[in-house]
Design goal:
YbbR-like domain-containing protein; signal; RNA Polymerase Alpha Subunit, Chain A, domain 2; alpha+beta; 4 domains; 31 strands; YbbR; elongated; seven-stranded mixed beta sheet; five-stranded mixed beta sheet; c-di-AMP_regulator; 451 residues; single chain
Length: 451
Amino acid sequence: MDRILNNKWSIRIIALLLAAILFTSVNANNNNATTFSTTSSSDTEVIENVPVKVYYDKTNLYISGVPETVTVTLSGPRSIVQSAKAQQDFTVYADLKNASIGTQEVKLKVKDASDRLKVKINPATVNVNVQEKVTKKFSVDVELSKSVVADGYQAGTPIIDPKKVSITGAKDTIEQIAYVKATLENDGKHKSEFTDKATVSVFDSNLNKLDVDVSPQEVEVTVPVEKVGKSVPIKLKQEGTPESDIEISSMTPDKVEVVVVGDDTVLDKIKEIEIPIDVTKIKADTVKEVTVPVPTGAKSVQPTTIEVKIKTVKKSEATNKTTTSKEENTTSPDENTTDDSEEKDTKISKSFPNMQVYMSGLKNTFDSQMVTPANGKVSVTITGEKKIVDDIAVKDLSVIANLSKSKAGDYSVPLELTGLPDNVAYVINPTKADFIITEKEAQNTVPSKNT
């Protein structure tokens, strides 16, 4: 052993072997560390709604079939993946600069992405239709929903601005155009002219929407609105017989007048509409929906149906009350004074149809037009002690619409009845009046009355 250690060549060989062992050990550790580091820093991210750019001859060609966005999956070192996701500094595109006319499959590509990233596009390919680009002008038709005007009014011919729009698309698509429509979805139930915007849509003969560019995409539509027809009161006529022990005590409609549409010569002859109410087999209070008949010669009525509240009373109850009353009257002659007093205290109702509505308190700077009731008249029913009600005449009463708080535009106000004693109740039908208030330009169309 001493001889080996004293030999310088032996020492050199031993040192070389130790160095080789140490080198191998260190290198193995480094490889393991590198492998671990590389594995732990890789990442994958999915990015949705990535825009797609299309490169083509925009002057002469029209392209369809390329999706607006795609989904991109990025794989690679975590730091690079996260940076690309945050900045989205890459571009997905379809290169159609040299495309020929017709339908073809095109592969989507990506540029400006790091070389260390693996990029997957979904969908990877798309079917694209390349056509000759054509631009033509088309007239626009307007479609109005039924709810744009109120009952008793009709829409005139719409005024469109602009009247024509430019439509750009593939030549074969342009040739399929059958309808260019601007649909006005406005539920305002207007009673006067109004203006609104409508989006233009393009359809083929089967009403399939076409993939084209429209300029401008919206048009301005002005719709004249005019009143039509004549407002006439309704009259209920009882028909049929209820159950044997039932009497009809009252029938009350939810509307006191309807609008009749027709020629002036026909409307002049219509004073009221009689509506038959079938009470056959009615057993208790109920509400019936009945059809409003169209008068002879008229075109239509609005509304077409009304609701009628029917109140009932049992005949047996009425008979018992009458019998009791007679027995009380014959019990003692001394009670005649009491009977007279009870008769005086009996409450009754009295109706005044077609009372004129008067406005009150309108500022001098405004004009008013009464919209409903259309004929400016309402029905009034008063209830109170017989001795008081019997003395009340229509000349004593006034139906007032207080416009002191009105402003320009549509205005609705509850109706009030003046001229009644404090102990008399009243019902006005309809209960309110609707006005159009405008800046003063002409004389008032609604009669006024000092209150």
